[in-house]
Amino acid sequence: VLRKLGSAHAKYGVQPEHFPIVGEALLWTLEQRLSPDGAWTPQVKEAWVNTWDAVVSVMEPALRQEILSKDDAVSRTKRLVGQTWGLVQDKVRLCVLLLKRMFHIDPSAKQLFSFGYVVNLDQSPEVEAHARALVAFLSAAVQGLGDLDSLAHTLQSLALTHEKLGVSPKYFPVMGEALLWALEQTLGPRRAWNHYVRDAWIKTWSVIQLVMQNKITTRAKAASTPAPKLTPGKIRQLVQESWALAEKDLEGNGVKFFLRIFTIAPSTLELFSFKDAKDLEKSPELAAHAGTVMRTVGQAVAGLSDVETLIPVLQKLGGAHAKYGVQPEHFPIV
Are 174 and 109 in contact (CB under 8 A)? Predict the structure, then answer.
């Protein structure tokens, strides 16, 4: 009965994150009714909590299964992140926790902030002001998941600002870890934090980190590398000659190429049918796909001799990848 009820509620827009809210409301209602009679005791409350947990343990998997059957991975990530961010009532407090956790994980991060060595961060006006700026940033990022092109532009601009302040890309993973911890501390007591939500936030932060990190790294390389004095003909020659050496082991190099992608951005593995392979390095499916991709690269390299013919082929290839869930943010990773 509970499984059927869980599945049925999916069509009404009910989400797993709603169960803690319903449970909280149920306990409150019972307390209001039973307390005047002295019938609301710690034991009674515990009994109801255990009962509700049992109900949820049956209904929630059925609800999730129904949602997953109608929901793709990208929209699911957007939904989970948007809904759980909406559940955070005191976002400024969460961002203060985030900053404190950053300093705990990597004390050297303190040097990035004027308030880094303040003893009591909870009472600092500077900390609160920066926390409010973080709230605005995270809110914009969550909202921007619906328009990734616009989000990428915003993140790139923010990356340039942070670069001027001397922020190193090495701190992005620290902030990501601190964000996950702060979210867990905030959402955990409300039973709104689980591995589905954590995975959605990890994917979201991966996008934020990769876009900003790539912008800073690219500019740093451009600033430190002398402008190459290569003619178009020389560029074509060098690329084609070096590719002739690389293509001697297309599948082998292709597998290494994909494994590197999954190391840089683990969430991209979800885009592929072989995502559940136990040993990716030995997966025949990955090897076949890697070979196909490498042959396509080879065709593009050969096409440098006839750019006018190559351009429409690349445009068609770009359009075709949209249906697989590929996003503009994936190009720097590739």
Answer: yes
The end-to-end CA distance of the chain, in Å, is: 48
Angstrom distance (rounded) from CA 48 to CA 53? 8
**Residue 128 in contact with residue 115, Cβ under 8 Å?**
no
Domain annotation for the chain: domains and CATH numbers:
2-70 (1.10.490.10), 75-224 (1.10.490.10), 232-333 (1.10.490.10)
CA atoms within 13 A on the CB side of 86: 10
CA torsion through residues 300, 302, 304, 309, sign: negative
CA–CA dist 15, 79 (Å, integer): 9
Dihedral sign for Cα 114, 116, 118, 122, please: positive
**For residues 111-127, average pLDDT:** 85
- Alpha helices by DSSP H, listed for the chain, are 2-9, 18-34, 42-68, 73-87, 91-105, 125-144, 148-164, 171-187, 195-224, 232-246, 250-264, 284-303, 307-321, 330-333
How many of the other CB atoms lie within 10 Å of CB of 34? 15
User: For residue 286, what are its two tokens?
Assistant: 């990955």
Q: What is the pLDDT of residues 57-99, one digit of tens each?
A: 889 888 877 776 655 677 888 899 999 999 999 999 999 999 9
Higher pLDDT, 4 or 73: 4
* Angle of CA points 224, 229, 230, to nearest 5°: 120
333, 218 contact by CB (below 8 A): no
Summarize pLDDT for 242-294 with one digit per residue, the tens.
989 888 888 888 889 888 888 877 888 888 888 888 888 889 999 999 899 99
Q: How many CB atoms lie within 10 A of CB 250?
A: 18
Determine contact, residues 87/183, Cβ cutoff 8 Å: no
Q: Tell me how many degrees the CA angle 296-297-298 measures, rounded to the nearest 5.
A: 90
pLDDT the model gives residue 226? 58
